[in-house]
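Table S5 (text form). Sequence records supplied for joint modeling of the two-component complex.
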Amino acid sequence: MKIHEYQAKELFRKYNVPVPEGKVAFSKQEAVNNAKELGNYPVVVKAQIHAGGRGKGGGVKLASSEAEVAALTDEILGMTLVTRQTGPQGKEVKKVLIEAGQNIAKELYLSIMVDRASAKVVIMASQAGGMNIEEVAAETPEKIIKVYVDPLCGIQGYHLREAAFGLEIPSAAMKQFSGMLKQLYTLFMENDCSLVEINPLILTSDDRVIALDAKVDIDANSMFRHKDLLEYRDLDEEDPLEVEASKFNLNYINLDGNVGNIVNGAGLAMATMDIIKNAGAEPANFMDVGGGASAEQVENALRIILRDDKVKAILINIFGGILRCDVFAQGIVQAAEKTGINIPLVVRMEGTNVEEGKKILEASGLNLTSAVDLKDAAAKVAAAV
Amino acid sequence: MSIFVNKNSKVLVQGITGREGQFHTRQCIEYGTSVVAGVTPGKGGQKMDDVPVFNTVADAVKTTGANTSMIFVPPPFCADAIMEAADAGVKVIIAITEGIPILDMLRVKNFLATKDCRLIGPNCPGIITPGECKIGIMPGKIHMSGGPAGVMSRSGTLTYEVVDQLTKLGIGQTTCLGIGGDPIIGTNFIDVLEAFQNDPDTKGIVMVGEIGGNAEEQAAEYIKKNVTKPVVGFISGLTAPPGRRMGHAGAIISGGSGTGQAKVEAFEKNGIHVCRNLGEIGEICAKVF
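The corresponding C-alpha cell record, covering 674 residues in total, follows.
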C-alpha cells in the first residue's frame, strides 16, 4: 500500500526521524494558514500524489511570500501532474504539503527494503542524493552502498557505522545520523514496510541530517495487524474500478487495450494477457479471480469489466481444477444473463468435467463463442475486436 | 523416481480442520497420499474423517512418524506454523497459504537456514509425484505418471495448463511442483533443477517463470553450467506494466529489473528452449524431450 509523503513524515515524527516542519493543505486558504504558522520564508509547496519525480513534473515549488504561497497552491492544486511514474495520463493533485525551506549543504540518498535474493533487509545509501536512484544504480553502481541486516539479529552498531562512513557523514553529525538510521530501521520493521526511502536526505550547513522527502510503502499482506495504518489509504489515488474489484477480493489492474479478460490464477492471467497480444490484440486488464474461484466471483469480475468502456470483447479463460467446469459454465451463463452482456464473449474452459461444461454453454442460447484451446481462444477474441 | 516426495511420504496437515484443509486433505487421500495426521491447536484427540488430529506438530510427529507437512494455516499464523514444523523435525514442509507478510517470511527463511528441512512455497499449489502422492491443491486427474518431464513453476493454474498439454500429448511427469508466487520462498528454481538433474527418470525439465525478481536469470546461468538435460522455458507477464503487482506478491517489475524480456533473453543466451506462446508449450516439449 502506498501512502503520501505527508503521511510518511507523520510516521517519521513518531519515530523521531527528523523532518522539516510542515502540514498538509487541501485548499488555498489552508495552505496560506500553514505558511503563516511556519512564520519564515521561503516555504516549499509540494504536490501530494502517489508517484515519484514530482519536482521534475512541476509539482514542487519554492515560495518566498504569502502571496506566492497562494499563487503556487492555486497552480498546483487541481493540476494533472505527469511524472515518470504516473504514466502519460498523469494524476490530479488534490492536496499540497506546505513545508519550511531548508539550508542544504549536501544531498544524500537513503532507503531500506527487503532483498529477495539474500532474504535480508538491505540499507541502500548513496552520496548521489536527489537524483533518480535507478539511474545511479545503472550508470555508477559503485556510488551505492549496500548494508545487509539479518532480520533475526536486528540492526547493530557496525551496520550504522558502515552506512555513516560510506556516506562520509561529518563527525559532528555522526551521532544524530546513527540514531536516525536505527529509528528508521525500527519504523521499517514495526510497520511491515516494503520500502522506506528518503531522497534526498539532507545535511544542513550546521551539521544536522533531515529527511527532506519521505516515501513509505506498506506490505498489503500485513494490514491485518496495522489497522491504524489503514487510515492512510487514499482511494482518490486508485483506479475506481480497481477499488471496486478489491472489495470482492479480485486481483484487477486496468490497462490500455480493448480485450477484457477473466482468468483463474495470477500466472495464467498474465499468460493470457500475453497470448492476447501475441494474437495481435491488446489486453484491457489483468483479472485474476483466484485459483479456485467460484461462479459468483466470475460474475463480479464480468460486471466490473463491462463497466470499462474501452472493452470491445471479453475472453474468459478458466482452468477448472478442483472446481468443476460444469459448475463454472452455469456461473457464466447466470452472470451473462444478469449482466446483459452485449459484446462478443469467447469462453475457453479446460479441466474437470469440461464436456458437461461445454454442453451447458451450448444449450444456454447465449451469444458466446467456445474455444478449443488457448491459441484458438486468443485468435477468436482478437478477431472479434 | 521423483524428487522431494514419493509414496513413502507420511504427510501431516497443519490446519486440517479448516474448510480448505478438510477439502484438500480428502482430495489428497483420494489420490492415494498417505495422510497420517492433522494438527489444529485445541482440537487434539479429535479426528478429521479417519485422520487423528493433534495439538502440536511435535505430538503428531512423535506419534505417527510424519515426515512431510502440508500447511493451510491462515496468513497471520502461518510463519509460526512453518517454524513449528521445522522445529519438530519435519523434513519437507509445503506451505499452500497465500498472503503471508513478507517480513514474517524473512524471519522464517533465516530461521530455516539453521534447520535440516526443505520448505516449498508459500503461496504455491504444492507438489505431486503422479501415481504416488499429491500434496497440494492441484487437480490430480490431469497428471500422467512415469516421466519423462519434470515441471516447476512459480504459478498454480498456469502449471495445470502446462501439465494438461503434456498429458494430452502422452508426455508423463516425474514430479510437478509450484515453488510459489511470493518474493521470499523456501525452494527456488536452482534447488529444483539440481534435484531434477539427479533424478534418473526425469529426462527433460519444464520451467515456468514470470516477471519480478531475478530467479529465472540465475536459474538460466545455473542450467548452462550444471544441467545436461533439455529445459523448456516459458515466462508469463511479457505484457505486464512496470510498477504494478500482478496478483502474485512477487510479480512486479521494479526499477527496470524483473522484466519478462530480460528473462527470455537470459533463457535464450543459456541454451533453454524458449516457448513464446503458452498454447504451444506441449508441442515444444514433445519435440525436445
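Note: The two ends of chain B are 17 Å apart (CA to CA).
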